[in-house]
Amino acid sequence: MKPIIGITMGDPAGIGPEIIVKSLTNASVYDICNPLVFADARVMKAALKVCKSNLRIRPVEQVKDARFEHGTIDVFDLKNVDMAQLEYGKVSAMAGNAAFESVHKVIELALAKEIDATVTAPINKESVNLAGHHFAGHTEIYGHFTKTKKFAMLLADEALRVIHATTHVSLRQAVDLITTERVLDVIRLLHDACLQFGINNPKIGVAGLNPHAGDGGLFGDEDEKQILPAVKQAQAEGYNVEGPLPPDTLFAKAIQGKYDGCVAMYHDQGHIPFKLVGFKWNNETQNMDSVKGVNVTLGLPIIRTSVDHGTAFEIAGKGIASEDAMTIAISYAVKMAQNKKRNQEAGVRN
Fold first, then answer.
1. d(CA 140, CA 162)
2. Nearest CA to 68 among 33, 28, 96?
3. What is the DSSP letter of 235?
4. What number of CA atoms fall less than 13 Å from residue 167's CA on the CB side?
5. Is 198 exposed, middle or buried (0-12, 13-18, 19+ CB in 10 A)?
């Protein structure tokens, strides 16, 4: 199976279009999938110039019109950017609206089963909100338009896989949102995701919220009152899970292979160790040599993966952005789409 992968351009003032062009330069991407970019075709043509690429852009109005031939990027042309007003590295309502419409359209077609999976380039939350679309990020947009109540963000890169009990909220709000029900939900989502990635009987480590996972209540009681009951219930259901564990050792062990997945309680608790592993800063060039890592939204009726970095406005339009994360995000989407298809076929046969 060669799935159709819908790729959103992200914020047109950011590096999204560039990393898409660079990723689709690789013939190996076309060997595993049929990529279709959702963007304004003029934005993608400008990205070709930025990247000094010999590829061509082919605008289409329907999925069935795409040819999926390496050397030509099929673009589902949304025609929603005024190129005279577009400035790289600038926050604007126009760019935010274009990014939002790209995401909305790809969700719509994935729900209609015209495409098999979706991959998103980075958006700028300020621009999206300036355009009147009041969402904290991609995860919340997908949750809203798929009418999904129980979903979560998973970061994945080689041995480290981290799911978040809470994401784009204040730290004060996060503490209140960490309930036994929520922690149990994300343990189940993480277990199912690992199975989709081909990991049998995954071992899951659950991070504590407080220093030393509360240390028996000395540093807060949330670990014992909310997180521990979720872990015990998951164990009773047959999951291979441990916790709550001090996060300062949990992630170090996970990177070395002790755990197949980790549950983080809030945004930065999970993102910091993940980016320490996947982001490689070059102090001489003052740029990132490599930016790896995939963001997967779990619990949705459709597949969504994404790069795990921002719009990088400071380098947008310079042609130096790394496409590593985009290429990996596409490969994850392909793997998940193929496994989903196989599971559906197996279910029909059974």
1. 18
2. 33
3. H
4. 18
5. exposed
Orientation of helix 41-50 relative to helix 16-24, angle to 10°: 70
| pLDDT tens track for 132-150 | 999 988 989 999 999 998 8
| Prediction pTM value | 0.83
Question: Which domains does the chain possess?
Answer: 1-148+300-350 (3.40.718.10), 149-299 (3.40.718.10)
For residue 196, CA distances in Å to 181, 202, 259 come to 23, 11, 16
Q: How many residues does the chain have?
A: 350
Q: What is the pLDDT of residues 287-327, one digit of tens each?
A: 766 667 788 988 899 999 999 788 999 999 999 998 988 99
- Distance, in Å, from the CA atom of 17 to the CA atom of 83, rounded to the nearest integer, reads 14
pLDDT tens digits, one per residue of 141-184: 999 999 998 888 888 887 889 999 998 899 999 999 999 999 99
Rounded to the nearest integer, the mean pLDDT of the chain is 92
Which DSSP string corresponds to 129-197?
HHTT---SSHHHHHHHHTT-SS-EEEEEETTEEEEES--SS-HHHHHHH--HHHHHHHHHHHHHHHHHT
Distance between alpha carbon 12 and the CA centroid of its chain, in Å? 18
- Mention every residue, 6+ apart, whose C-beta is less than 8 A from residue 129: 96, 135
Asked if 260 and 203 touch (Cβ cutoff 8 Å), the reply is yes
Nearest to 75 by CA among 23, 9, 128, 26: 9
Q: How confident is the model at residue 281 (pLDDT cuts 50, 70, 90)?
A: confident
The DSSP element (H or E) to which 36 belongs, if any, is strand 34-39
**Distance, C-alpha 41 to centroid of its chain:** 23
What type of residue sits at position 197? F
Q: Which token pair is 138?
A: 């991609």
